[in-house]
Specification:
The chain folds into two domains: about 80 residues, Winged helix-like DNA-binding domain superfamily/Winged helix DNA-binding domain (Arc Repressor Mutant, subunit A, Orthogonal Bundle); about 100 residues. It is mainly alpha-helical and about 190 residues long. The two termini are about 25 Å apart. It contains eight helices and three strands.
Length: about 190
């Protein structure tokens, strides 16, 4: 999540104070991601240092009474960020994937049991998000959008766990070859 760019987006609406930006960030994310005031002010200081925003008084430390506004350079960076897809060419270091792959190597551990424990947890989270969405979704559009994103993310994790369990069962739960990692990495590099 780019707090930097979210703050630029809020400032594109007009000048604002630091605490106002913090409140708007939290409201815009359905109050799912709280933002530390210190993080807001350190981000604002970096944005000002990079000439992406300006304030009433550049000589003072960022504070609650300081008004910030976006500059042309800031607007340009925001436009580029909004129109540029993130780099997703390489899979992220996902703790769950690493855990399943590691379970294959641990003697006496059933990788299928590991998968099922995590699958149950994901399903419980999906149920919690569904209830929250039913309770709050009609009242708060931003929360509904965040809940939708989280439900879809959790659904994809559950589907991956099901796929991994099926693949491992068909393979007889054999450990992956030592060459798997480098071979996959070579394929990703070759596609670029």
């Amino acid at each position: 999540m780019s707090v930097r760019h979210a703050l630029l987006a809020f400032l594109s609406e007009g000048p604002k104070y630091g605490l106002q930006l913090r409140q708007e960030f939290e409201e815009s994310t359905g109050e799912i991601w709280p933002l530390n005031a210190g993080q807001v002010y350190s981000t604002l200081q970096r944005l000002e240092r990079d000439d992406l925003i300006e304030s009433d008084d550049r000589g003072e430390e960022a504070g609650p009474q300081k008004m910030f506004r976006i500059t042309e350079a800031g607007r340009s960076e925001l436009d580029v960020w909004l129109s540029t897809p993130p780099d997703m060419t390489e899979p992220p270091r996902d703790e769950l994937v690493i855990k399943v792959l590691s379970a294959l190597r641990v003697p006496g551990i059933s990788v299928h049991d590991v998968i099922q424990v995590h699958r149950r947890y994901v399903v419980e989270l999906m149920q919690q998000w569904t209830r929250l969405k039913e309770d709050e979704g009609d009242l708060d559009l931003t929360f509904a959008l965040v809940a939708d994103a989280e439900l879809l993310r959790l659904d994809s994790i559950a589907r991956w766990l099901d796929t991994a369990d099926g693949r491992l069962r068909r393979a007889g739960t054999e450990a992956p070859s030592e060459r798997t990692g480098p071979r996959i990495r070579r394929r990703l590099v070759a596609r670029r």
